[in-house]
């Protein structure tokens, strides 16, 4: 068995047939690849569609679970996969017809840990064009590289390091998994053709207009930050990769927080405190960034792009530390209270010295 295609399915009856048709229209014998479909507690007719296809195509295998999320569904696929390489496909997306033979020949000629493929993104009209002509120049090509469904992963590495998706994370869980894979093996080979079509549609896991989905997304960012914090001092994980992932999710969190109602922002702040975000400069600065986060939660969305620059990179973190050090100097106090200084220069400095002595005594 050369390929295992893992498809988590949750209430995608509208597009599921298109997805499965694209997966079975391949130029490899049935015994060369398998399609593992995991029904994640769908309440529509998805399970009936899966069973119909499984009865018709021997390479399709169906598993069912209560609704536990996409991470748990993919883990079931990994537990049952037998192929040398793993491909992940979402239930409302498509892959290129008759692409597996060429992929297999490429991997046999140059075996690698990870083969990164090209992809398109668009609506259902674009999906129809992709089915007819995968090289349609009007299709929008994706330039994102750290996406799960743009990669073919060697299963032996996944099993050697027991890589699995972290359950309970519903958004960007694939990015966390890919970071773990890259931590285990950084080898990547580029494949020139566009194999995948990502269909944007309302009601999916990334539909931010849905309040429930939006809340799950924010909680996922918090949980990923918590995972990053736990791994910071673990020698088994690359600090560079871990910190880059932390950067991305802090930036996302700040970008989407202004869309939340004020009480929800405060609730997110409580969860954020528990995750104790990591600041690269030193451990003593954890309180610094927490105070800055608290102020940020109360600000309007107009500041969010500035905040992303400040908080999502090491240089910005150093600016925060430098600003706070300058804040404690006499010059800073004078600049912030010029009238007090002009009215009584010596008295102002004396009061400041007394205040600083009290603070240091504590």
SSE diagram, text form:
Layout: E1 3-9, H1 13-24, E2 33-40, H2 46-56, E3 60-65, H3 70-80, E4 85-88, E5 94-95, H4 100-109, E6 114-122, H5 124-132, E7 140-141, E8 151-154, H6 155-160, H7 173-184, E9 189-199, H8 211-231, H9 239-256, H10 262-275, H11 286-297, H12 304-311, H13 314-327, H14 330-336, H15 338-343, H16 345-361
Q: Which stretches are poorly predicted, pLDDT < 50 over at least 5 residues? A: 279-285, 297-301
Mean pLDDT, all residues:
81
Total number of strands: 9
Number of helices: 16
State the secondary-structure class: alpha/beta
Order of helices and strands: EHEHEHEEHEHEEHHEHHHHHHHHH
Describe this structure in words.
This protein is α/β, with parallel strands linked by helices and 362 residues long. Helices cover 52% and strands 15% of the residues. The protein is built from 16 helices and nine strands. Strands 1, 2, 3, 4, 5, 6, 7, 8 and 9 form a nine-stranded mixed β-sheet that branches. Helix 1 runs parallel beside helix 2 (46-56) and helix 10 (262-275) runs antiparallel to helix 11. The longest helix has 21 residues, at 211-231. Mean pLDDT is 81; it is low at 279-285 and 297-301.
Task: Name the features.
362 residues; alpha/beta; nine-stranded mixed sheet
Produce a short descriptive summary:
The protein has helices at residues 13-24, 46-56, 70-80, 100-109, 124-132, 155-160, 173-184, 211-231, 239-256, 262-275, 286-297, 304-311, 314-327, 330-336, 338-343, 345-361, and strands at residues 3-9, 33-40, 60-65, 85-88, 94-95, 114-122, 140-141, 151-154, 189-199. It is α/β, with parallel strands linked by helices and 362 residues long.
């Amino acid at each position: 068995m050369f390929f295992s295609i893992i498809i988590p399915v949750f209430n995608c009856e509208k597009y599921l047939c298109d997805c499965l048709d694209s997966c079975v229209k391949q130029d490899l014998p049935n015994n060369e690849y398998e399609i593992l479909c995991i029904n994640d507690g769908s309440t529509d007719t998805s399970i009936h569609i899966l069973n119909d296809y499984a009865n018709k195509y021997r390479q399709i295998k169906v598993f069912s679970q209560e609704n536990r999320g996409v991470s748990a569904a993919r883990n079931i696929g990994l537990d049952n996969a037998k192929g040398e390489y793993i491909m992940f496909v979402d239930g409302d997306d498509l892959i290129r017809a008759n692409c597996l033979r060429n992929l297999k020949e490429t991997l046999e000629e140059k075996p690698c840990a990870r083969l990164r493929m090209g992809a398109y993104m668009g609506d259902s009209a674009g999906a129809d064009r992709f089915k007819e002509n995968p090289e349609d120049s009007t299709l929008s090509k994706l330039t994102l590289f750290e996406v799960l469904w743009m990669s073919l992963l060697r299963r032996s590495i996944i099993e050697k390091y027991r890589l699995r998706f972290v359950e309970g994370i519903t958004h960007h869980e694939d990015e966390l998994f890919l970071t773990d894979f890259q931590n285990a093996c950084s080898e990547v080979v580029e494949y020139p053709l566009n194999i995948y079509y990502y269909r944007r549609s309302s009601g999916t896991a990334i539909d931010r207009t849905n309040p429930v989905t939006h809340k799950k997304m924010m909680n996922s960012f918090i949980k990923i930050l918590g995972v990053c914090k736990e791994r910071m001092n673990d020698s088994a994980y690359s600090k560079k990769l871990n910190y880059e992932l932390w950067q991305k999710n802090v930036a996302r969190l700040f970008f989407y927080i202004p869309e939340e109602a004020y009480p929800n922002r405060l609730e997110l702040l409580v969860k954020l405190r528990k995750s104790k975000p990591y600041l690269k400069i030193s451990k003593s600065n954890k309180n610094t960034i927490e105070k800055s986060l608290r102020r940020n939660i109360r600000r309007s969305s107009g500041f969010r792009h500035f905040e992303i620059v400040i908080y999502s990179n090491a240089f910005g973190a150093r600016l925060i530390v430098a600003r706070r050090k300058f804040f404690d100097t006499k010059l800073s106090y004078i600049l912030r209270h010029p009238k007090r200084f002009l009215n009584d220069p010596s008295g102002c400095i004396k009061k400041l010295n007394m205040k600083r002595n009290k603070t240091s005594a504590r």
